[in-house]
Design a protein that fits this description.
The protein is α+β, with helices and mostly antiparallel strands. Helices cover about 35% and strands about 20% of the residues. The protein contains 13 helices and twelve strands. A hairpin with a 2-residue loop joins strand 5 and strand 6. Helix 10 crosses helix 11 and helix 12 packs antiparallel against helix 13.
């Protein structure tokens, strides 16, 4: 007699318009109004938009100029990352009341493995509902959730009933759920890949599932293997409570474009100071230093150098950044500069992950 298959229980929690919602919570005058965090009427990029602003087509990563065009009444607010981190910390404390298997993706979203949880509750759906209610009661913000047997499906499901909702995709519903899904909603399939899939006649999960592994690998390389498995509900990635930092970076977008390397060096000094503090806070150093340059036409360039030793000291960072800055002449005025350190001393070999299954 065969055993009934067992599965993990994964919750993906995603805060609703997090940065903008924090601003509206802290400033009652902003409630119910279209708000953009970051950007301005003249320049800059929007980091987040309230749902009132999204109705007009305002989204994160669009320019402030475009946001103003879409929504003339948009209110631009400067980001307050210290405040967002403070709120995020409170939310993550709630998560840890339920499980220690919490994998943060950013300040406003995380995966929780509640297969075995601290509440002893066998229902992942009821746990998600309770967590969302606690976030609202204790923090004052709404969150949405997706619940399923793996991270891939849970991530997609959390977007279904936004804002302030949740969706559960049970084990026996996973394949049908993915088959009906438009390909553009598959997590990890961006605009370019979506267009390529359209050209290959792939518009839904069903279309993707009809393609052979050989076909997908031929057209998408290693990603083709990923697509072949996830559309069948197979995604073996575990919820990892501690994620290895691959790089540490600091950058700044300027109100006025810079055209002089002397002015750029002054700004890079400040950026390096911020980077040094971050490295010291996490007790990390690295060998590969990268200078990021974004020009006034929004084109981007990176210049990197790998050292034979680890560094974290500002003076050593600047010594190498200066060399990278003068490596070649600037092609245009500069709107953003950034410094990152990678090839860090905290990197370890990845362990082989084997999928474990439990009662859903």
């Amino acid at each position: 007699m065969s055993e009934t298959p067992t599965y993990r229980k994964i919750i993906h929690i995603d805060m609703d318009a997090f940065y903008a919602s924090v601003e509206q919570m802290d400033n009652p005058e902003l409630r119910g109004k279209p708000v953009a965090v970051g950007g301005s009427e003249n320049r800059g990029v929007v980091s987040a938009a309230s749902y009132e602003a999204r109705k007009f087509g305002v989204r994160s990563a669009i320019s402030g100029v475009l946001a103003k065009k879409y929504c003339p009444d948009i209110i631009f607010v400067r980001p307050r990352f210290d405040r967002y981190k403070e709120i995020s910390s409170k939310i993550h404390k709630i998560f840890h009341d339920y499980t220690d298997l919490v994998e943060p993706l950013s300040l406003d979203e995380a995966y929780l493995d509640v297969t075995k949880n601290k509440k002893g509750n066998p229902s992942a759906s009821l746990l998600a509902q309770e967590i969302r209610q606690r976030i609202f009661n204790e923090v004052g913000l709404t969150a949405s959730a997706g619940i399923s047997i793996n991270k891939f499906v849970a991530k997609i499901a959390s977007d279904y009933n936004k804002p302030n909702g949740q969706k559960t995709v049970n084990p026996d519903e996973v394949e049908a759920f993915l088959e009906d899904l438009p390909i553009r909603k598959f997590y990890g399939v961006g605009k370019v890949t979506t267009e390529k899939m359209y050209q290959l006649g792939i518009f839904t999960g069903t279309d993707l599932k009809s393609k052979s592994l050989e076909f997908l690998e031929k057209h998408f390389g290693k990603s083709g293997t990923f697509y072949y498995h996830v559309v069948r509900g197979i995604h073996n990635s575990e919820v990892k409570s501690s994620r290895i930092t691959k790089s540490v970076a600091a950058e700044h977008t300027f109100d006025v474009n810079l055209s002089s390397e002397i002015f750029m060096m002054q700004q890079l000094e400040r950026i390096a100071t911020s980077l040094e503090k971050r490295l010291q806070r996490h007790n990390i150093s690295g060998k590969t230093i990268t200078l990021k340059i974004k020009y006034s036409d929004f084109s981007q360039q990176t210049r990197s150098k790998t050292l034979p030793y680890f560094i974290s000291d500002k003076s050593l960072i600047m010594e190498n950044v200066e060399e990278l800055l003068y490596q070649e002449k600037m092609k245009d005025s500069v709107r953003l500069l950034g410094i990152s350190l990678s090839n860090l001393n905290n990197e370890v070999k990845k362990a082989v992950v084997v999928q474990l299954k439990f009662t859903f």
